[in-house]
Structures are given as C-alpha cells and as structure tokens.
Amino acid sequence: MDSWWQLGEWAGVSGSELSTYRITCPFCMEKGNFETAFHAEKSKPNSRKKLNFDTLKCGNCAGYVMCLWSKSSNSFDHNGIHSYKVLPWPLKYEGHPEFWPEAIGRYWLQAKKSLVDENWDATAVMARSALQISLRDHGAAGRNLKQEIDDLAEKGILPPIIKDWSNNIRELGNDSAHPKPDQPPTDPQDARDIVKFLDFLLEYLYNLPHQIEKYRERKEENNS
Ligand SMILES: [Zn+2]
Hints:
Layout: E1 13-14, E2 34-43, E3 50-58, E4 64-71, E5 81-87, H1 102-116, H2 120-137, H3 145-154, H4 160-166, H5 188-223
Antiparallel strand pairs: 1-5, 2-3, 3-4, 4-5
Helix pairs in contact: 1-2, 1-5, 2-3, 2-5, 3-4
The structure holds zinc ion.
C-alpha cells in the first residue's frame, strides 16, 4: 500500500461494513464483542473513497482499540470488500490465513505460539512439520526437507534465493521429529531462524499467489 487511500481497495475481507466480529480485544482476548464509542470519517476529494476512524470499546473488559477502516470504492452493500487496521493488536497469535491448507496453518500457529513461550524444541518440530506439508503440497520429492527444497528449486517452483537461504538454516538438517536419547536441546536462534524461513516460504508459496489471484478477479470484475 502506497497511500492510506488504498486501504480496502485491492485486498481485504468481504462485506462493506467493518466486521468487528473479526477483531480480538488485545487486553482480554475476547473476540467480536465491541461497540462503537467514537466514529469520524474523512472523504477523499472528488472521490467516493472514505476513511473511517472508529474507537471501539470492548464489552467484556471495557478496553479501547482504535480502528482505521475503509471499504472499496467499488463496493456495493452486499458485494464488496473492506480492510481495517487495529491498534493495539493482540500480541498473541490466534489464527492463520483462511486460504492456507488447514494442516499447514495448524502447525504454523503452534510453531509461533511455541516461539512466544520460548519452547524451542516444540517450535522447531512444528515449523518442520508445516514446512514439510507445504513442500509436499507443491509436489516436492526427497528424503528430507533439504532435498525437498532443492527439488522444488530445480523444478523452478522455488527461486534460487530461497534455496541459498535454506543452506544456512541449521534446523533443516536436524531430525527432531525422531529424537535420540542424547538429542541436544534446540538452539533458540536456530528455532527463530527456521520460523522466519517458514514465514517467507509460506508468503511465497501461498500468500503471493493468493494476492495475484484476488487482483485478477477484481480486474475482471471491473472490466465486465
Ligand atoms: Zn476486552
């Protein structure tokens, strides 16, 4: 996004009203229990585009969040998208993008939560599981993660820069899913590294294609 006026124009969630049911209170973690305490809006000059500035009050703990949101200027009541930014946001991971395969999201979420709780072994195991499923989901062959990454790079599905990077991720070579009695503990930095690698891989294999697909759909809608 290059300008706040683009909020909700090309990417967002369905509906043309703020979907407060999606918002989680950062203080008590209750979801979707908000009333609007303050509302203001600003229109873009000579345009249908409007930015909304809402302060939402949590019905459970009486905490407040600020929400900037806008619907697409091509939106009609039941057939539109909007996007929003909330401050503050919960400092806990609660979900994954809906368009990811469920199992990948489940393992990714557990990797993230384990990272927050500093459970390094669990972080590495969960990250490796999410990686494995996403690589196999793209037809990777090989006996371990490293070989599967190399295979996808050879097929042109992964770019060389990801393959190069994978050479520096120590956890890719470990087999912490089949631990031995003398298994050393996972190094905290190695756990962080593999999650970072996982985040970029998922961005490339799932988020980017999804964004391009959405972009194409909206272009076609606008042209029809
Ligand atoms: Zn609350």
